[in-house]
Structures are given as structure tokens and as C-alpha cells.
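ok here's Transcriptional regulator YwtF, seq below lol
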Amino acid sequence: MGCFSMLRWALAFVLVFVVVGGLWMDTKLNRVDAQPPQHIANTAGTNWLLVGSDSRTGLTEEDVQRLGTGGEIGSMRTDTIMVLHLPTWGKATLLSIPRDSYVNIPGYGMDKINAAFSLGGAPLLEQTVEESTGLRIDHYAEIGMGGLANVVDAVGGIEVCPPEPIDDPLANLNIQAGCQKVDGPTALGYVRTRATSMGDLDRVQRQREFFSALVNKLTSPATFLNPFRLLPTISTVAGSFTVDQKDHIWHLARVGLAMHSGVETTTVPVGGFADTEVGNVVLWDEAAAQELLSGLR
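and the structure came out like this:
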């Protein structure tokens, strides 16, 4: 009877810790109004728009030098645009959208898709992604340069596996081929660089590799079962993300669980490139893209 009573108290303590800890983490999230003026009709499953912004907001001059970011403080550009599709049943799909994709931006006309973020922030980007893909966006999550590096350092680094060495002074990156553990600044350079043969198309693959590696590290027993690492890690992670006003930490937890269970990764099919009034752009293979996207709707 005594053992049963102790077990009951232990379970009650764990439950209180989880609830209070979850509510505390939820207060650490940064929030913006990411809702577009109007959504398209509902589509199947649940879709997250995941954005890696070029914002240097909050970075000191030392941070800029350490991370090799340069550029304008607080700029509004995005190098990473992904849609995470969580079906009702089955494996999740992580879909990369090249930032130079030539699409219609509502109210502005044809342009590179990342221009939507510059012109109207999260709401316009979300609306543009919905209308381009036909996928209703249910949740939004954004992380800036400093936040990305801090999260990687908080989990003790992640493993990446470049197939070839990459030397890119502009991204402050010099990395050898093969699987290796990298710290925050190196991981940031790894997802930013375009100094490989296929440029942005290679980069979107590295971005998906990075995201999967980060989620696996966050949900690993080494992180999750170590209270000395767990608390500072979740504090850093929560404080590094910006989500929509209606999004909460338990929504992000579902993303982690889905990714940890395995995910299909892909890129919107590309049909070619073209020089336009907005520069060199990525053209989608419309038939292949519609076939892929219709399977997610």
C-alpha cells in the first residue's frame, strides 16, 4: 500500500511538472499575427508553414561576426520555406519550396516567392503559399539566424553529412565531406550556403537534413531524459521560435513527434530556370507539381 501511495504521488508530481512546464514554455514563444486576409478552403490533414528568416534582429556586432551573417539588421527576407504536412494517418511529408520560385504574390503580381515575406511578412507569405500550392496552412513557425544557431548549441550540436566539401566565406562555412557533428554557427552556414553545383536546389535539401537532425536531437533520450540539459534547451528553443497567435507549445510538440516517427522529404518539382524582370527565377514543373500537391490535399 505504501509503495502504491508513493507511486501515485510520483505520477502526480510528473503530471504537475509537465503541465506547469508546458504552460511556462508556451509563454516563452514569440508570437505574430501570421493569418492571411483570407484562407483557401480546408484541405486534408494539418499543414505547418516553416520559415527560416534572414532577420538579424537581436544580434550584436559580435554575433554578426561569429555567425558570418552580415547584411542589414532586422531585414525581412527568408531563405527557408517549407510546408510540413501531417496526415490524419501515415507518415508526414516535409516539402521544400525554393525561395526563388516564380509565383503570383496576391496584390503584387509575379515574383520570387520569398519576396512575399519582404512585402507583407508572414500573412502575405502564408497567403502566397496557400494559393500557389493549394494547401491550407493551419500553423506557422519562424526562426531567425541567431535563434537557429542558439538552438543547435543548446542541444550540444547536430550531425550533418555533406557529400562534398563546402568552402563559402560568405556563409562563414568551411566544412569537409562526410558525417560530422557541427555547432550552431557551422549549422547556420550549412543551411545558408549556395556554394555548390545546384545552388538553391542543393540548399533546400540541406535545410531538410538540418531540420530532421535538429528534431531527432531534441527528441532523443540524451536530451529529453536529462533535466540539466532539458530545461535550458526547451527555454532556448521556445524563445527562438516565432509562431502565430493561436499556436502553442503543444502544437510544436506534435511536430516533433511526427518528425521523430519518420518523414518523407521532397522539393516542389522544378521544370527549369528563367531570367525575368525580378532576376533569375525557379520555374515549377506544373504537371509534376500538381501531381505531388494533389496527393497532400
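fwiw The longest helix spans residues 2-28. kinda neat tbh
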